[in-house]
Design a protein that fits this description.
- The structure is a homodimer of 331-residue chains.
- By secondary structure, chain A is of the alpha/beta class.
- Chain A has 2 domains: 132 residues, Four Helix Bundle (Hemerythrin (Met), subunit A) (Up-down Bundle), CATH 1.20.120.420; 186 residues, Rossmann fold (3-Layer(aba) Sandwich).
- Chain A contains 10 helices and 16 strands.
- Chain A has a 7-stranded mixed sheet. The first copy, chain A, has a 3-stranded antiparallel sheet with strand order 1-2-3, with helices on one face.
- The longest helix of chain A is centred in the middle third of the chain and has 28 residues.
- The first copy, chain A, is globular.
- The model of chain A has no long low-confidence stretch (mean pLDDT 95).
Chain lengths: 331, 331
């Protein structure tokens, strides 16, 4: 399946990242040989999606451990912790990153005698396998919500679970079409979602972000599915900016709005308003792929995520089923 | 004032259009020497906004009349009517185009003895002056709705009335900021509105189309203003696609949503649903300034306008005042 894994080790001391910003036009490979390069790659959005960001950062921590091991000075937990902090600081909104970093440090501490890089790698391999299982289970749960003839609107790239949802629906003989918002400024909807669905043989139509309500008002959309970068215990969801306005419009036009929630909420985040919203470089809005699109005196603003309150969400789909947002804490 | 007039005659037999698709990066001038070239320029969106499209088409009809007059065969009303039909077929959603073409043909018919090109030009010169008066009067009415400290969200380019609104507010000592959606796929909000407001010294911030609800939810926006390509007698408004979702979000988040309605409704269009929505070449969505942004199997859809129902509109601002949408028929 496209986009399920875009990060892999080359030998023992280098990480290769397929630069998602350049897909589908080119499959550019970026080599990272230490954790700082990995952190920069994450900041520059070469990887995308809360789960993939976490895994990539995990490989960054692995490279930091390898570096210490090569120097034969033995493991310095303080240095490893610094590397983890650097990697955690890359993207504040998703919660998988901090959770995985915490888990990796914890495991290394517990097995003080073992080789840190091997301990980290074992956890990452397990996480990778587990992430695929979660995507498949979430896709299977989401598929039960679809009726043959539905057209699904989706925003940004909602992860492999979205692709599995379409795959299973097809296997079950359901005719499901996709409409994808392009998702400015990084165009993940156009470059990742529309591309991968169309390559799977799904009837896929691209629209700009401002056409969603029109399509809804014309009866062209039966269901909306997006992912979540973080789900709070109150059922609020942080996801790619634009999710909130899709949810408002879906509610106004009486269209079910679902979140692919994968593993469920972040138990340490009680309320949606507690989720930090990453603000990125305004230049990414002022420019389109490097070309300025307006005058020099214009400022720009780039919040990368928004918060959708639970009352606008029909259901949150996780591995264990479809949950009412207000009950996600007990899911 | 920027963008008040981008079309003018050079001598008696050529029309110069400043290509709005290239602003603000270059002020490319396009020469048209017959009405077919003018029609193509309109179709290709070198001019923008219902009023400007109508005036440009008027100059196209003038060129058609000049062509006949140069050939000394005398005026053939059937040929002039054909030229008017070609020009009318360029863009179906705005209503000013058909109204002006009808008026120009009517005037030529009435003054059967006169020189058609001169009759047409006299009407156009009057329309141009009248259009400026309407923009100023509308801007003056709209300005009364603003309170110092307001930030106004606007979409696409809402015409010179919007610029006058900001100008008058500034003259009256009101501190008003602007947030502009970029307005994909043609980026009129970034290229025309944000540019011209910032050049007027207004504090102007650009966002992508999917950030509007987030900004509203954060209390960053006090009022929304857009234009109308056509107002129906039931108070529904056709405007650049994306207007509907701004209106839905504004209502949900309790923010006043105003339409700059200039001259008011189209008396021949009873209901919003009667307004034809222009669908443009999907390639304009699949590509960004000529570069494909997704895979080859992806389709695209490009409705250029949408319809906002009267119940989502706080007020329609015309030369005569601010009207409740449901009462616009008697305005």
């Amino acid at each position: 399946m496209h986009l399920e894994n875009n990060v892999y080790l080359e030998g023992e001391d280098a990480l290769i990242i397929i630069d998602r910003r350049k897909l589908p036009r080119s499959e550019a490979e970026v080599y990272c040989t230490d954790h700082v390069e990995v952190a920069r790659a994450i900041e520059q959005m070469m990887v995308q999606g809360a789960g993939d960001i976490a895994l990539t950062a995990g490989y960054g921590l692995y490279l930091a451990a390898r570096e210490m091991e090569r120097q034969d000075d033995g493991l310095d937990m303080a240095v490893l912790k610094q590397a983890a902090d650097r990697l955690c600081a890359t993207r504040p909104t998703g919660f998988h990153l901090a959770v995985l970093m915490g888990k990796l440090l914890e495991r290394v501490r517990k097995h003080a005698g073992g080789k840190a890089s091997e301990i980290i790698l074992a956890v990452l391999n397990k996480s990778l396998a587990r992430q695929r299982e979660i995507s498949q289970a979430t896709g299977r749960q989401a598929e039960t919500l679809l009726a043959s003839g539905d057209t699904v609107l989706t925003h940004c790239f909602a992860g492999a679970g979205l692709l599995y949802m379409f795959k299973y629906a097809k296997e079950n003989g359901k005719q499901i079409k996709a409409i994808c918002t392009e998702t400015r400024p990084y165009l993940q909807g156009a470059r990742l979602t529309a591309w991968s669905l169309s390559e799977m043989g799904i009837d896929t139509t691209l629209i700009t972000d401002n056409m969603a309500a029109y399509c809804m008002s014309k009866g062209m959309i039966q269901k909306v599915f997006t992912a979540a970068d973080r789900i709070a215990m109150d059922g609020a969801v942080a996801n790619k900016v634009g999710t909130l306005q899709l949810a408002i419009c879906a509610r106004h036009l009486d269209i079910p709005f679902y979140i692919l929630g994968y593993g469920g909420p972040d138990r340490r985040t009680l309320r949606g308003n507690d989720i930090p919203i990453e603000e990125r470089d305004p230049r990414e809005v002022i420019e389109f792929q490097g070309t300025p699109i307006t005058g020099e005196r214009v400022k720009a603003y780039y919040p990368a995520f928004d918060i959708t309150p639970p009352e606008l969400i029909t259901g949150i789909v996780t591995v264990s089923g479809v949950h009412k947002p207000l009950k996600i804490a007990s899911a």
